[in-house]
Input
Amino acid sequence: NNHGTIIGPTWVRLPSGFWVINQASGDYVDCGSDASILPDVFSFEIWAKYVSGNYATLMTFRAGGDHPALALRWGGGGSHVFMGADNDRYFLHSPVDIDDGGWHHLVFVMPGAAQASIESSQMFADGQEQTAGTPTSTGSQTVKTGAVLIGKSPSAPFIGQWELARLYASVVTL
Output
């Protein structure tokens, strides 16, 4: 039950009655850097809607630059588990097209710090496993030393809306 600090909030009310952070203004949540939220094994769950075509960093451990991080869109056009300088895995927006401007329930799963774990990482959208691309293989995760930021990295803020973000220090199964 670690809680973050909302930085610069601009709130938007959804038809459901819930309020969400409006990322168009660069708002984010700083969760601090307690060791309990810097796990090697983790799952990250979030409801998100993003503006198509924009880089969309959902969460970063801010160890140095833009990684380790999770992004909905990065460089190659797909979602991205970016755990080191050249140590990453892309996910296609298939079978669920999350680039449609709608809300999606997303889960990223990282089963460990080793290269084999990055190669077996998973992404789910609306309960369906997304198609994975070929990972870049250069070693284990970058050591997590900075604050966990949700909705921001040093160079690529999330543009869109999100709610109900959760970071688990375990592998969740769907």
